[in-house]
């Protein structure tokens, strides 16, 4: 089969290599073999290629952490009983999920754990379904499980035109919040407006702290969704409301901030961490419940992954590099 492999860590354009005779992965106990129909590109893919991710598969490996695929086979039943019986999967079923590395999504075939596979919603095509899982699950857990966002509150979303940021804008609106979107550049500002943000702030042209204070009458944002870190986090501490919540989702800006906890004390705000991947092992029932909620929201048209690029298989190195460099809007999806 065709697959993109990482023989050594480095920049995606430099090290990713396409092989045409990679062996098809063999599903182990409790695993599904799927034919990849669409693979969404995520920032963790860049970290994997660079050797900077918390998981480091043995070299060479195939990256790609999110897919929509067609079930073609499955391994034997797992030796250990599961808390939740597997779905009644059948060949041809359309599924989404996070592949089991080192057999990632940038290949013709990949593996999924049966217990962590989800039915793709009929209302989304393959590219949209592939992009629904990680970004929208992350945004949902951040806004609802961690920050307990309430209707009528003000939500500040950084990198609002990106993959996970655009999901947070959609889910914030669906929850009845007033959404302030922070983006970098006029094109991304237009995207955030199209998503329905109530206020869009281009950080390259104006100070988002001043804008948030002005539009909230000095109160500030009740919830901050921050996948950027660095200056985005620091500025957020200056415009978060009394008893507000800042959810730290990632550090796409490259700088991990060191918060002044005395400031959180005197201003009475909370700093919350969100690592969505932990819920898959610690509370898989919650992940499955959120998937049902996301499918229902998608069926109503309240959420739809912002797929801005449907790319051929040959474009994988360029797509991963673009996501790594932060030059993309929405989601890039590879169609093998």
UniProtKB/TrEMBL annotation:
InterPro entries: ADH-like_C (IPR013149), ADH-like_N (IPR013154), ER (IPR020843), GroES-like_sf (IPR011032), NAD(P)-bd_dom_sf (IPR036291), Quin_OxRdtase/zeta-crystal_CS (IPR002364), Zn-ADH-like_protein (IPR051397). Residues 10-334 form the Enoyl reductase (ER) domain. It holds the Pfam family ADH_N. SUPFAM superfamilies: GroES-like, NAD(P)-binding Rossmann-fold domains. It comes from the Bacteria. This is NADPH:quinone oxidoreductase family protein. It comes from Kitasatospora purpeofusca.
